[in-house]
Specification:
about 140 residues, mainly alpha, Cytochrome Bc1 Complex, Chain D, domain 2, 2 domains, 7 helices, binds heme C
Length: about 140
Amino acid sequence: MKTTFKRKLFVIGLMILVLGFTTMSFVGYQDNKPKPWKVPEASKKMKNAVKSDAASIAAGKTMYSKHCKSCHGSKGLGDGPKAKELDTECGNFSTAAFHGQTDGEIFYKIKEGRDDMPSFKKKIPDDEDIWNIVNFMRTLAK
Ligand code: HEC
């Protein structure tokens, strides 16, 4: 009698462990996977209002260092010191996939934000500053 009871306990314990690990890895997997952004068509087509010249890129770099580097890293690789504390990966601004999107899409994402990515509507109220950042980000392409 005693052994069967112990065995049952053991099997139940094992099942709880396996189930727990499966759930944990599933939730972890879901959290880190980047979901596609829903960017409105009009925003996608929005024209960059600031010409990308040395002055704009330099201004963008200053803003980026102040507001973005802590998470995205100085080269946009998603390796800033704060990135480790987040549930979501910060993405990689050096990839062809990232630069395949329009300036308008990048502008929209900076303005609106999503989850761990803050909205900069209030912190950077001047659109021109955001366009400068977009121009700087284009220089991070590999
Ligand atoms: C607190 C950390 C944090 C800060 C600060 C931050 N970001 Fe992000 N950013 C994220 C995270 C996390 C994501 C991924 C969000 C997602 O996919 O849901 C992201 C996503 C993005 C994206 C979309 C990436 C893609 O693949 O299209 C852009 C663009 C972006 N950030 C630009 C910026 C800019 C520019 C700044 C500064 C003005 C900034 N971020 C500041 C955390 C941050």
